[in-house]
Specification:
There is one protein chain. Helices cover 84% and strands 0% of the residues. It has one domain.
Length: 210
C-alpha cells in the first residue's frame, strides 16, 4: 500500500507540474500553494527555471510564489489550530507545552518569518503547525510567511541571475555539507532578532512611562 501511494504521488507530479508550468506566473503561485499545503515539490528548482528563462520578470515570480506559499500554508496552520494541541501533548508534558507556548507568543512573527526565509532542511511545516497550535492570528501569520518566502526567493533569484540555474545546487550543497554550521547560524539569527526585539520593547516601555 505504501508503495502504491508513492507511485501515485510520482505520477501525480509528472502530470500536474508540467500542466502548471504552462501557466507562467500563475503556475508558480499554484505550485508554491501545493508545495506548502500538501504536495512537496522542488520549489527552488522550479522557480530558478522560471527566473532563468524570463529574467526581466524574476520579481513577479517571487511575488507569486510567496503569495501561493502563504495561502497554501493555511492548511498545516489550520490542522494545528484544529487539533494540534492534543497532538503535541501526546509528545510533551503540559509544563513543556506551556513553556513552548510562552516562547512562541513572545516572538510569534519571527518564529514564522525566519524559517520561511530558510531553505531545506529547515522543518518549515513544523513551525507553521505550531503557529496554528498556539493560535497565532491569521493575518500576521500569512504576512510572516509571505515576507519570509519573498526574501528567500529574491535572494535565490539574484544568485540565479549571477550564477545560472546551478545556484540552487550550490545553496543545497552548502546546507547539506555544513548542516551544523547552518543550524548554528539559524540559532544565532533567532537570538540576535530576539535581543533586538526585547531591547526595542524595553525602550518603548520606558518612553511610554515618560
Amino acid at each position: 500500500m505504501k508503495h502504491f501511494f508513492a507511485l501515485l504521488m510520482d505520477r501525480w507530479k509528472l502530470v500536474l507540474l508540467p500542466a502548471l508550468a504552462k501557466l507562467g506566473f500563475w503556475g508558480v503561485g499554484l505550485v508554491a500553494l501545493l508545495d506548502s499545503s500538501s504536495l512537496p515539490v522542488p520549489m527552488d528548482l522550479i522557480l530558478a527555471g522560471y527566473v532563468w528563462s524570463d529574467q526581466g520578470h524574476f520579481w513577479v515570480y517571487c511575488l507569486m510564489g510567496a503569495a501561493g506559499s502563504a495561502i497554501g500554508g493555511l492548511v498545516p496552520y489550520g490542522l494545528g489550530r484544529a487539533g494540534g494541541e492534543l497532538f503535541l501533548l501526546k509528545r510533551v508534558d503540559r509544563k513543556r507545552f506551556e513553556a513552548m507556548q510562552l516562547r512562541f507568543e513572545k516572538q510569534e512573527f519571527l518564529a514564522v518569518l525566519v524559517p520561511s526565509m530558510l531553505p531545506p532542511p529547515t522543518p518549515w511545516k513544523a513551525f507553521v503547525f505550531a503557529a496554528g497550535v498556539f493560535e497565532m492570528r491569521v493575518a500576521p501569520y500569512m504576512l510572516a510567511v509571505f515576507l519570509g518566502r519573498l526574501i528567500r526567493w529574491l535572494i535565490l533569484s539574484l544568485l540565479v541571475l549571477k550564477l545560472g540555474p546551478g545556484a540552487v545546487g550550490v545553496v543545497g550543497d552548502v546546507v547539506h555539507h555544513h548542516l551544523v554550521l547552518f543550524l548554528t547560524g539559524l540559532t544565532l539569527v533567532f537570538a540576535a532578532i530576539a535581543v533586538w526585539a526585547l531591547r526595542k520593547r524595553g525602550k518603548n516601555g520606558v518612553e511610554s512611562k515618560e
